[in-house]
Amino acid sequence: MKIRRVKATPINYRLEAPYLWVFGELDGFSRTVVEVETEDGLVGIGEAPTPGAAAIMAPATNITTRKSAGPTAGCR
What we know:
The chain is an alpha+beta fold. It has one domain: Enolase-like, N-terminal domain (Enolase-like, domain 1, 2-Layer Sandwich), CATH 3.30.390. The protein has one helix spanning 51-69, and strands at 3-21, 24-38, 43-49. It has a 3-stranded antiparallel sheet with strand order 1-2-3. The protein is elongated, with a radius of gyration of 17 Å. The mean pLDDT is 78.
């Protein structure tokens, strides 16, 4: 299976009211929608945060994962 086309579309949207959380306030979000098409005509669509959003979320994800999952066997 070979990839014929990849299309990345950035999307920015504002919230009606700010989203408040422990790390501050957000008035909108940015995402990238990725569409991948194979030479057979299969299409897959995915979504990912922009690099800036990923950097903001990384500390929260790390804290949440450590508190909820605890140590993982075989990992240091």
